[in-house]
Design a protein that fits this description.
Strand order of the largest sheet: 3-2-1-4-5-11-10
Shape: globular
CATH architecture: 3-Layer(aba) Sandwich
Order of helices and strands: HHEHEHEHEHEEEEEHEE
Bound molecules: S-adenosylmethionine
Distance between the termini: 34 Å
């Protein structure tokens, strides 16, 4: 990847495999295009199966993107499973720093170091602790702990993205409407579900800005 055009040529080739995540990954890279070098991406939950785009292959995408940006742009990723970090190491370039650790512990240390040496993070991509769609609390709480660990180093334009967080709403059947006859209830209002649902509650309290909401969700302006 010598430049941005090379990256987008490569990305357009694999984009259809990203399915529901294609639109939000495109928005992520467009957002990063507007950010100055170096692009620093910190990820929790690394690529664990080569070529399995059902998970997202996020580490590979971020690796290719930061290589295309150059000038000390870099990816940091953490995963508690040594098998995941082993596969990840075999798949991405040396420009990705891969650590085997619990993500909250890791982010707490990283925050201390980045605060001390004034490293600015362009984006945090939170995708650890697998989600149980019927009982999202443990995963959502873990991602809220991750946010707690990094709050101190969130700049106004640092993008925070959480995977597996589509909007959810309560539906009722429309008696006379066109098929499919479903209506979203206004009360209780639709919100963010999945891994990011507690991060979204916090984001709403502190008036962070919702940047996009697709299968993945993103905010900035946690700290004004
Ligand atoms: C959904 S996968 C990550 C997929 C990856 N982002 C991709 O797009 O290919 C979730 C990963 O989070 C890891 N994980 C689960 N709990 C964790 C924790 N407490 N700390 C760090 N990693 C964790 C799992 O080992 C797994 O490899």
């Amino acid at each position: 990847m010598n430049d941005n055009l090379d990256f987008y040529k490569w990305f357009d080739g694999i984009a259809p495999k990203l399915d529901n995540r294609e639109i939000s990954f495109r928005k992520i890279f467009k957002y990063l295009d507007s950010q100055p070098n170096p692009i620093i991406i910190v990820e929790t939950g690394c690529l664990r199966v080569k070529d399995n785009f059902l998970d997202g292959q996020s580490t590979l995408l971020f690796d290719k993107y930061t290589l295309s940006r150059g000038e000390k742009s870099k990816v940091y990723t953490v995963d508690k499973d040594p098998n995941s970090t082993k596969i990840c190491k075999q798949t991405v370039s040396d420009n990705v720093e891969i650590t085997t650790d619990d993500s909250v512990h890791y982010l707490n240390n990283l925050t201390h170091n980045f605060f001390t040496n004034k490293t600015k993070v362009s984006m945090f991509y939170l995708d650890s602790f697998d989600l149980d769609w019927r009982y999202p609390y443990p995963s959502a709480a873990h991602h809220l702990k991750e946010l707690t660990a990094i709050t101190k180093i969130l700049h106004r334009d640092t993008l925070v993205v959480v995977d597996d967080s589509p909007a959810i709403g309560n539906l009722t059947q429309n008696e006379h409407g066109p098929a499919p006859a479903w209506k979203i209830l206004k009360s209780p209002a639709p919100t963010i579900g999945g891994k990011g649902f507690l991060v979204h509650e916090y984001a709403s309290h502190v008036r962070a800005k919702l940047v996009f909401s697709h299968y993945q969700v993103a905010w900035n302006e946690f700290n004004k």
